[in-house]
């Protein structure tokens, strides 16, 4: 690095696919592609070539889809597709009619194929990960694949399933009276006027209002009864009166009266611990038996592995058990929850030992230093904008209330509303993009831009001069980096190129449960995370259960530290437990103007800058804002030293894409193939036709993938101003290096954490 201000964590994660990428090449037809590119080819000959190609590639796609591993992957994600898609295509394999039903099912299966074979995701056995490291004593790389692709599997409950079982258990009066009710996040009470989380007011009877005010997630109905009687509030209610009041409050949606199940990767432990705290009774035995039945059903799924027949049977029995014990559907609708549609999920570790050597690290650090310096500048500007937003919100509220402190809970709620509109960050991102464009300064029409980090250093230091990060999270960034090499031997020989993927701002992505469960020494990761605490505090949100938070997808960090502070939103709403004495109740904190800036006063009297307290709450709004080049009709590939900083990209109106006629697939294929060639697009690309969607693999030599792309563009054309983003696939299938024991190769990416020590 040009200056030692950035430090990489010693350990990093290698993410990759669970299916070899070369299998996707079976879905291409070079003969048909050549015929499409030949301007002298008669339409009839083109059609004949295309028909041969689509028959051959459709058969290859069905062959992929019927493999045991592929069927098992479908069973995890979309069990109905095994019969409705793969099964339908097999039943109609002899029918050559190109019906709408056939095209739709081919596209569905092709979408799954590209996901399993070409997209680097951390999900199940079709997206395993493995921890790796840099070693200065290794020249370039050491690769030692194990006998199987998967080394370790672990099946977990989604926390909503155990929460649903807890709700069912709580219907037993013998259990319920021992549960401390909790106020639902967002529910409030003032006098006898309650406010539902959706904002609806409701006037309560005096007893119900008094009980709601006493509910804190810690006190049982018996303790609340004693308290009310001692204070002579709402008369002299007995415990049955309080029980009935709690029932009404639960029915109104103001409280949760069930065991608290943390949003955790092992939620069943919390329910088991609660049941263990109950005295021996038939009710306890019934509840314990229900939990153990659910655990046994999960273990049956785990034992099935990726064998489709046992897996299908085990998943079906699990679904039946969940429905019977909880009274809820075992598979949630797509629009019901962002995460966790099934009752369980599987995480897997890859069976390979990868060590990256000095050559890889030395090639990465100089250009990555420029990238990270620019990230520091961007976070400085975004942090300033966040401070201004908080200040404005504070002053607005203080003006309405006559001055003084502002409840931090109110400030946070309004801040998160503002951050949901991306325009808050637009000026900083635009300036960021302008700076990078000035530094790189390519000529119009260039397709390959090469720069040296030493030549860019002075300009970058000027454009991106910035002070150190303003809060703990802003000093941590997580870049994804891919290695392009024509196989493992090419990598070992040093013939490689690095490719920058996403840069996740203000987040140490490796401190996440999807990775930490396989780390040989999690305490080492915690030491890495704690190292910067000497210079700044860290306040970590304890997220309650919500549609955006699940045990598997819980925001970083996963590892708990008794050196962090934890910001508690609503006890009893699925929050994880913090170390004793390290929890800060959000509703007990106050924000105040101090010397021109907003600070937060802790119960101890200590004051912290507001971003030290709420900065990590804003990480979702900043994590994906590292977009160094502005959208353009064409952006060249930009390489700094041996790091591809930006892949070649096209942004095109969907109206400009030649989609052809659905009824003439051969002509539509040829038109698109020629169009792509005329624009200089490579054979392999990724595309998106809607904002917020995942990139989709496209091989322009594949009739199947071209059909899928054209169908999506036709659909997108119904929206005004629709555009399609197309990015070169780099590394492409000819430049992957991650092997298994049989020599098959897989796409992959490295995920790193960089810490700002400036």
From TrEMBL:
Q: Where is the Lantibiotic dehydratase N-terminal domain?
A: 68-520, 632-704
InterPro entries, per database record: Lant_deHydtase_N
Source species, domain of life: Bacteria
Family matches, as Pfam families:
Lant_dehydr_N
Protein's recorded name: Lantibiotic dehydratase
Question: Which organism was this protein described from?
Answer: Phytohabitans rumicis
């Amino acid at each position: 690095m040009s200056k030692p201000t950035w430090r990489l964590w010693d350990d990093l994660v290698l993410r990759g696919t669970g299916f070899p990428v070369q299998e996707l090449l079976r879905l291409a037809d070079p003969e048909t592609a050549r015929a499409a590119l030949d301007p002298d080819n008669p339409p009839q000959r083109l059609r004949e070539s295309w028909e041969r190609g689509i028959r051959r590639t459709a058969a290859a796609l069905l062959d992929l889809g019927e493999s045991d591993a592929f069927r098992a992957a479908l069973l995890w994600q979309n069990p109905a597709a095994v019969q409705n898609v793969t099964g339908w295509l097999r039943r109609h394999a002899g029918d050559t009619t190109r019906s709408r039903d056939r095209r739709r099912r081919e596209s569905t299966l092709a979408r799954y194929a590209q996901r399993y074979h070409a997209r680097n995701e951390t999900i199940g056995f079709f997206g395993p990960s493995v921890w790796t490291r840099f070693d200065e004593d290794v020249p370039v790389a050491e690769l030692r694949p194990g006998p199987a692709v998967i080394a370790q599997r672990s099946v977990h409950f989604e926390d909503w399933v155990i929460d649903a079982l807890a709700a069912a258990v709580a219907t037993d009066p013998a259990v319920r009276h021992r549960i401390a009710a909790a106020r639902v996040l967002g529910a409030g009470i003032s006098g006898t006027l309650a406010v539902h989380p959706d904002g609806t007011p409701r006037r309560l009877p005096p007893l119900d209002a008094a009980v709601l005010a006493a509910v804190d997630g810690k006190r049982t109905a018996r303790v609340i009864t004693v308290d009310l009687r001692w204070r002579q509030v709402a008369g002299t209610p007995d415990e049955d009166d309080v029980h009935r009041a709690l029932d009404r409050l639960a029915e109104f949606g103001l409280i949760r009266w069930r065991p608290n199940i943390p949003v955790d990767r092992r939620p069943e432990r919390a329910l088991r611990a609660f049941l263990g705290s109950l005295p021996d009774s038939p009710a306890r035995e019934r509840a314990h038996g229900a939990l153990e039945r659910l655990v046994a059903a999960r273990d049956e799924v785990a034992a099935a592995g990726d064998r489709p027949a046992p897996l299908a049977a085990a998943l079906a029995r699990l679904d039946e058990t969940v429905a019977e014990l909880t009274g809820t559907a075992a598979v949630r609708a797509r629009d019901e929850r962002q995460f966790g549609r099934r009752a369980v999920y599987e995480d897997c570790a890859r069976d390979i030992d990868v060590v990256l050597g000095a050559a890889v690290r030395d090639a990465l650090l100089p250009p990555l230093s420029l990238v990270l310096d620019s990230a520091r500048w961007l976070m400085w500007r975004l942090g300033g904008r966040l401070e201004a937003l908080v200040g404005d919100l504070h002053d607005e509220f203080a003006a309405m209330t006559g001055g003084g402190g502002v409840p931090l809970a109110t400030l946070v709620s309004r801040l998160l509303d503002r951050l949901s509109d991306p325009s808050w960050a637009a000026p900083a991102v635009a300036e960021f993009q302008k700076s990078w464009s000035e530094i790189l300064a390519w000529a119009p029409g260039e397709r390959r831009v090469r720069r040296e980090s030493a030549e860019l250093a002075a300009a970058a230091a000027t454009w991106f001069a910035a002070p150190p990060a303003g809060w703990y999270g802003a000093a941590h960034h997580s870049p994804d980096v891919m290695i392009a090499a024509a196989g493992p031997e090419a990598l070992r020989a040093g013939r490689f190129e690095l490719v920058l993927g996403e840069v996740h701002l203000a987040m140490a992505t490796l401190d996440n449960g999807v990775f930490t469960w396989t780390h040989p020494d999690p305490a080492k990761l915690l030491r890495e995370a704690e190292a910067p605490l000497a210079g700044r505090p860290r306040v970590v949100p304890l997220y309650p259960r919500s549609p955006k938070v699940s045990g598997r997808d819980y925001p970083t960090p996963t590892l708990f530290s008794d050196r962090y502070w934890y910001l508690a939103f609503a006890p009893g709403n699925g929050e994880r437990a913090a170390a004793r004495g390290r929890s800060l109740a959000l509703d007990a904190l106050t924000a105040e103007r101090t010397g021109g800036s907003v600070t937060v006063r802790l119960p101890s009297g200590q004051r912290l800058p507001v971003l030290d307290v709420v900065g990590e709450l804003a990480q979702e709004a900043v994590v994906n804002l590292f977009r160094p080049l502005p959208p353009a009709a064409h952006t060249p590939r930009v390489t700094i030293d041996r790091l591809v900083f930006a892949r070649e990209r096209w942004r095109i109106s969907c109206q400009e894409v030649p989609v052809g006629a659905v009824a003439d697939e051969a002509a539509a294929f040829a038109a698109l193939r020629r169009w792509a060639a005329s624009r200089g697009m490579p054979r392999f690309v990724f595309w998106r036709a809607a904002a917020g969607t995942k990139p989709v693999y496209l091989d322009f030599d594949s009739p199947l993938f071209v059909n899928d792309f054209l169908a999506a563009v036709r659909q997108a054309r119904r929206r005004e101003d629709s555009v399609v983003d197309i990015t070169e696939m780099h590394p492409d299938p000819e430049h992957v290096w991650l092997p298994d024991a049989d020599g098959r190769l897989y796409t992959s990416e490295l995920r790193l954490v960089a810490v700002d020590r400036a």
